[in-house]
Structures are given as structure tokens and as C-alpha cells.
Design brief:
single chain, mainly alpha, about 0% strand, rod-shaped, about 110 residues, about 70% helix, 2 domains
Length: about 110
Amino acid sequence: MSHLKLVVPSEISQQERLPDRIAHGGDEPPGGDDMEKRVSELENFAAEAVKEFRSIDVRLAKIEALLPTLVTKTEMAEMKASLVQWVAGFAIAVIATVLASSAFIVNVLYRLIP
């Protein structure tokens, strides 16, 4: 069974309804801090944040400029397949050239030797 209590708005006292600074009669925000000091710190933080965002924007622009030149996985697979085909074709051509050359040399030598 739940231990929650249902509170009807008419049962809430006037003191509980008012914000803390109004209920206690203070002019400053809760915690007793000086408002101008807090605003000054927030303005300094905002200025630093703007500098950081500009730096991030510059880096992001560089990355976006680089993206079109990068290779995708599909393009890499296609290049690998093409390279394998070229190497296999070159190997077959070299073997065929060696066999043809050796057959020619054997044929020439066979005719020279009586």
C-alpha cells in the first residue's frame, strides 16, 4: 500500500505557495548572493561559450570540407576487387610471357643442335 498523501490545493498554506524570496521578504535571490556578481559571471561564461562554439564551427567546417574526399566502404571494396583483378591478370601475363619465351628459346636451340 502506498504512503503518498493527496494534497488538495485549498489545503496548501499561503506561505507554501509563495516563492522563497517573496515569502521571506528578501530583495536578493535565494542564497544571499549578489545579483550583479552572478550576472557578471554568467556574461563571462557566455562570452567564453561563444568563443568555444566558434572554434567548434571552424573545426566542423574543416571536417565537412574533407568528407567528400573520403572513401566509403563500398568504394574501398570495389578498389580492392579491381586491384586483385589487375594483379591476377599481370601474373597470368608474366607466366604466359615466360612460357612463350622459354618455348621460343627451346625451339631455336633444338634447330641449332643437330
